[in-house]
Design goal:
With about 325 residues, this protein is of the alpha/beta class. About 40% of the residues lie in helices and about 15% in strands. It has 2 domains: about 5-180 and about 230-250, NAD(P)-binding Rossmann-like Domain (Rossmann fold); about 185-225 and about 255-290 and about 305-320, Alpha-Beta Complex (UDP-galactose 4-epimerase, domain 1), CATH 3.90.25.10. It has helices spanning about 15-25, 60-65, 80-85, 90-110, 150-170, 195-210, 230-240, 260-270, 290-300, 305-325; strands spanning about 10, 30-35, 50-55, 70-75, 115-120, 170-180, 180, 215, 225, 225-230, 250, 255, 275-280. Helix 2 packs across helix 4 (about 90-110) and helix 4 (about 90-110) packs parallel to helix 5.
Length: about 325
């Protein structure tokens, strides 16, 4: 057995969308996994060798969670799609600040060797994202700071916290900025789902009920790039094993509008839809990832096409909708 197979890992937020997939990814590579979350996985049982229900807003829970592990993948976060983020600023800033401050300090006290923090493209300034045809965002564009809402501010502050813990305490920190990760086994209804899952749900309902009208928030011309979960996991693993300590974008660099995203999903579903544009939170007007540094640092970039990832995601969500409608 090689040294890497003996590594003991903590994944926080292990019941969440990315966390659940990450547990499986690391387990398949021989790691011993402790998963921690405030709730159990919703769509599939965890495969972690050890799993605990813990509220990581509480210091003592973070201390026990990080005990005896070599590495921490810090994914725990109170978050959701634009509807949730735009309506829960105080809650998000309070809860996530407690989670991250307690978790990284507990990791330090328990002599964790390496700490992975999952940041977000929401750290980028709103003044750089006012047009749909935005110039792709480089890592250095985060400053001068003006992040999007409380969620973005908390992420940016925790990035700085990781930097200081690395410089002052010697904790090897790695920081990733996710750009719209999507795939199966994630929230697809209830208000916390993100745009790809929400549109997959709406289009699946349109298909199964034979009612082609699909609501889209705003004019649908707001633009984003979307990265499939399998590429996300590969990027996480490569960054954690690298010696690069600074924030790094992780996402696709192909930008589409929400209207285009809806048309792609409708094509996968095999139907034609009628878009109904309605008022709703839209976030920034445009956002795209500049992957120049990602390619330089990791000698890699996401490879799974938007269509390929959406096909798997749509099929899974259509099955969830079908089950719900038939109940």
């Amino acid at each position: 057995m090689n040294k890497e197979r003996k590594t003991r890992v903590l994944v926080t937020g292990a019941s969440g969308f990315i966390g659940h997939h990450l547990v499986n990814y690391l387990l398949d590579r021989g790691y011993w996994i402790r998963g921690v979350d405030i709730k159990k996985p919703e769509f599939a049982e965890t495969r972690a060798q050890e799993f605990s229900l813990l509220d990581l807003r509480r210091w003592e829970n973070c201390l026990s969670a990080t005990e005896g592990v070599d590495e921490v993948y810090a994914l725990a976060s109170d978050m959701g799609g634009m509807g949730f983020i735009s309506a829960n600023h105080a809650r998000i800033l309070h809860n996530n600040s407690l989670i991250n401050i307690h978790t990284i300090e507990a990791a330090r006290r328990n002599n964790v060797r390496r700490y992975f923090y999952t940041s977000s493209a929401c750290v980028y300034p709103e003044y750089r994202q006012t047009a749909a045809d935005i110039t792709p965002l480089k890592e250095d564009d985060a400053y001068p700071a003006q992040p999007q809402e409380a969620y973005g501010w908390e992420k940016l502050i925790t990035e700085q916290l990781c930097r200081h813990y690395r410089e002052e305490y010697g904790l090897e920190t790695r920081i990733v900025r996710f750009h719209n990760i999507f795939g199966p086994l994630g929230s697809w209804e209830g208000g916390r789902e993100k745009a790809p899952a929400a549109l997959c749900r709406k289009i699946a309902i349109a298909k199964l009920t034979r009612r082609p009208e699909v609501e889209i928030w705003g004019d649908g011309e707001q633009s984003r790039s979307f990265c499939y979960i399998a590429d996300c996991l590969e990027g996480i693993y490569r960054l954690m094993r690298s010696d690069y300590p600074h924030p790094l974008n992780l996402g696709q660099d192909r930008m589409v509008t929400i209207n285009q995203l809806a048309d792609i999903i409708a094509g996968i579903a095999g139907i034609k839809i009628a878009k109904k544009h309605v008022p709703g939170p839209q976030g920034v007007r445009g956002r795209n990832s500049d992957n120049t540094r990602l390619r330089e640092v990791l000698k890699w970039e996401p490879r799974i096409s938007l269509e390929e990832g959406l096909r798997v995601t749509y099929d899974w969500i259509e099955e969830q909708v079908r089950r719900k409608i038939s109940v």
